[in-house]
Amino acid sequence: MFETSFTSSDLLFMLQGAGVTLSITAWAMVFGTLAGVASGLICTLLPRTSLPLAWLLDAFRSVPLLIQFVLFNAFKSIAGWDYSAFAVACAVLSVYTAAYCCEIVRGGLQSVPPSLYRAGRSLGLSGAQTLASVIAPMATRVAFPGWINLVLSVMKDTSLVLWIGIVELLRASQTIVTRIQEPLLVLCIAGALYYVMSLAVARIGHGIETRWQDHD
Amino acid sequence: MLDFDYEFQWRQALDAWPELLRGAGVTLEIAVLSMVLGTFIALALTAMRGAHYALPRWAAGAWVSVARNTPSLFQVYMLYFGLGTLGVMVSSWAALLAGITFNNAGYLAENFRGGLKAIPPTQTRAARSLGMSAFQSFRFVVLPQLLRVVFPALTNQMVWAILMTSLGVTVGLNADLTGVTQELNVRTFRTFEFFAIAAAMYYLMAKFVMSVARLMSWRLFRY
Description:
The structure holds 2 protein chains of 2 kinds. By secondary structure, chain A is mainly α. Chain A is about 80% helix and about 0% strand. Chain B is mainly alpha-helical. Chain B has 9 helices and no strands. In chain B, helix 2 packs across helix 5 (about 90-115) and helix 3 (about 55-70) packs across helix 5 (about 90-115). In chain B, about 40% of the residues are buried. At the A-B interface, helix 3, helix 6, helix 7 and helix 8 of A face helix 3, helix 4, helix 7 and helix 9 of B.
């Protein structure tokens, strides 16, 4: 017969973990997107001068996130900074997000034909105006699905912060597993929570996409 | 801001390089194995998703969506701790390999589906009417073109596989690059130095894979 010592307070604990997962994702996405859009613009507008920036961001894409967390955490202790593990997690994930977001933004900007820029200029718009009201709206539509994919992948990558001692969803379920010794059940619940969160983000993203298509 | 009183001890970390290099070998081995297995499974999944019957279609769809919508760390945990409950004892090495393979197959199946769209179905019909069997027309007409379309995605996934092997340390694997680094770290407490070197090695491996892939694509896809 099916018996379990999994209680409702355990579920609450896991939901709190899911809340931490979501809040780390949100912070990382906000800062990462801001930095990513900025660096994407720089990389597209000044492809030669921004080569060092591109290399730097490429390094963050070529090193496992787990190692980045450990490295930055160790560096924090060496430098004597008094930040919480949560801040470290958000900072590292932001840079990681920015590295990917830069590529997405660059791809979006490059998908806009250069003749549109010239058309905007010949209509009397300034360079900045053309960028803001001609190029950006078109590039956003191209880049948006990639950005939603980035949200999904960052949300999944937050599970790695358990290594630096933050109790997020996966860590919370591991704690419960240690107590009640039913890994299969608890992990299935954790997986279902991740699945639902991903599905929700994907749905919202899809909704926005179709809404934008209506106005085209 | 950066006037910390900490003596960096790079010598100790650099002296350990034979061990780290062996770890990098294990990392590459797991990544390559998982990619080879993952590609075959992904091809099977792609075929199953286009199948006539509902059951294989559903199974393949479930595989792909679970692999893509849950963290890879969760997948490795599930195989290591979850299978243990069912009485199947897997080593951390096998759990890691299976986890990454599961993940690779899910992502690659999605890429393959996109790639198949680029190949007109008339080609299969033409091959079939030339007397090729269904398998032959897939093997000699569709597959070569498909591989060309999905090659960049395969390369990216290979880099991802290398980065994902670092998850082995969370289930107690101590043979791959991260595992070796963590062992040395526990022994010496020189966290920053060891992990910085490991990061550099991962970077070099990723670049190595990218350049090999570029050479291969020149060799394979000329004409």
